């Protein structure tokens, strides 16, 4: 059974069709890149998987379960915006995650926060945007989830911070879990992706194993992306 | 999970409310001091006037602010960026909504207690405590049984009406978030429409009761005392408020569970 099964999903905002018959599945233990230019529907698709939006038609299942409380226990999700309460301190946030997620490893999170040199009693609102993003990533990656979904975790971030984020992701996710990561900055991630899904104007235009796609097209994923989405 | 939600919801609201409580008590004490000094000079008399104005304002902030904070908290947790966390918690939507109701009611009650304490301090400070207590004792001394029932019913009516008011606001936010843009504006619009429906519901229900049971209305008019009539009316109103709240809240739950639109 696939870990994530997205089947014939359609979503429109008014007359604007954002996702059109999207179908794919993600097996266990894979790092999957959800690739597409801005406005291709990546974030909408991720929100649907996280039950923050409702599909017009089609279905989404995680470990064979319909979306709901049980699937939320399995997914660790990093949105593309600051979603934490700015009035909370880092320690309060760690305890919050510990209280609500059984799989949250607070010691791991404290270790990662310590490496960043952050004070546990510092409030989120006193931090820079970049530091907040790192705290969010630490919270998300400190869960021992089955499926990690990261929406543009390296978008708009300087190269040094990008390395930190990629390293944090790769060293903190277990081999039996899967990772769905949306990005348009492929060169930084290409080497770690097992599979890719190309999304264009709300449709899956290509999907499969990165090795096979490279062999088939004789191009790197980065070059193929540029070719596929050139203006 | 309800206990955990309550813990964080209370913490979140009291982070703002506790400083307001502290300011209220400080202004109360300053009002008492200046009130006692107001006869000694014109300056203290002017300051006393300003302090009384501040006192009235802070009492209004206390009550209106508590209500506003509860509504704002619900909006932020369901229709803003914070909703990305709230709505991905492995918790039923109904449990989150229940936590919001409980924290809203408890914080309002605690604000009313602070207001009550503040008024008591003001009375003690003005040297009127004895006559105040005498007045209360006198009021309750020969109070008829019906009047006691009326006081209890008034308290119940105020609490259920507050819960119902929250329910209307929560449904307005749930409806407003269905729109892809200007969610706050549509929440206000939904509130206005719901408020009109809400008022019509009470009017039509009371008219309906009068129409189907004219004997009952006649009995209210003629045969029972004024206080008993009011008690019966309060009882009917409490029932009507509970019914409409019991209809509204599952709709809010349904929308947030099945039509969430964090676009």
Keywords:
heterodimer, A: 231 residues, alpha/beta, Rossmann fold, six-stranded mixed β-sheet, 8 helices, 27% strand, globular, B: 263 residues, mainly alpha
Overview of this protein structure:
The complex is a heterodimer of chains A (231) and B (263). Chain A is an alpha/beta fold and 231 residues long. Chain A has one domain: P-loop containing nucleotide triphosphate hydrolases (Rossmann fold, 3-Layer(aba) Sandwich), CATH 3.40.50. Helix content of chain A is 34%, strand content 27%. Chain A has 8 helices and 10 strands. In chain A, the strands form 2 sheets. Chain A has a 6-stranded mixed beta sheet, with helices on both faces. Chain A has a 4-stranded antiparallel beta sheet with strand order 2-1-4-5. In chain A, α5 packs parallel to α6. The radius of gyration of chain A is 18 Å and the shape is globular. The termini of chain A are far apart. The mean pLDDT of chain A is 89. By secondary structure, chain B is mainly α. Chain B has 2 domains: 137 residues; 121 residues, no CATH class. Chain B contains 9 helices and no strands. In chain B, α7 crosses α9. The interface between A and B is medium-sized, with 26 and 25 residues.
